[in-house]
Structures are given as structure tokens and as C-alpha cells.
Amino acid sequence: MAELNAQTVENLSEQKALNAMFSQYDSLYAQNVELTEQNTVLRQQSASIAALVSKDKVVASLNKRAQECEDRSRQTEKSILKGELDLKSGLSQFIKQRGEFHQSEILKVKVLQS
């Protein structure tokens, strides 16, 4: 009879341990489900953002900016040659515009390499 009582106490102790493990499992499972749902939402948001700012759109924008800078610098060059602009201020403006053009080109290369 003492052996039976000891076995019962041991079984109850193991049952409490198993119940604690099941409770912990349920808690971790619920946390996993929540994190999985959150991960899905974040992936969708990331894809949405990537679609809005895709490489192609950035490169197209940089190409447009570079072309605008190129056109302005060509116009400035023509104005200098026609005498419409003072040489010193015209050259200053031309150099600034060429710098903007090259900056756009450098950014485009960096975007394409990333």
C-alpha cells in the first residue's frame, strides 16, 4: 500500500510537470502564431514599399534628372558662345550644371550596383 501511495504521489508530481509544460507550450505556440502573422504583414508592407521605390523607378528618375542637367548645361554653353552670358558667370553656372549631371550619373551607378 505504501508503494501505491508513493507511485500516486510520483504520478501527481509528473502530471503537474506535464501540465506546466503544456501550458508553456500553449503560450509559446500562441506567441509563434502572433509573430508569424506579424511577419506576414511586415513582408507585405516591405513588398509594397519595394514596389513603390523600385530600382527601375529610381534609375528612371535619375536618368531624367541627368538629362535635365545635360540640357541646361548645353543651353548655358550655347548662351556663352553667343555672348548672351558673361564668361565668368556663364562658366560658373556651366560647371555647377555639369557637376549636377555627374552627381546624377554617379548615383545611378550606385543604385544599379546595389
Count of individual beta strands: 0
Cα Rg: 35 Å
What is the number of helices?
A: 3
Helix/strand/pairing class, anyone? mainly alpha
| Overall shape | rod-shaped
SSE layout and pairing:
Elements (H helix, E strand, L loop, with lengths): L1 H51 L2 H28 L4 H27 L1
Care to describe what's here?
With 114 residues, the chain is an all-alpha fold. The chain folds into 2 domains: 1-52; 54-114. The chain has 3 helices and no strands. Helix 2 (55-82) packs antiparallel against helix 3. The radius of gyration is 35 Å and the shape is rod-shaped.
Question: What are the salient characteristics of this protein?
Answer:
mainly alpha, 114 residues, 2 domains
Concise structural overview:
Helices cover 93% and strands 0% of the residues.
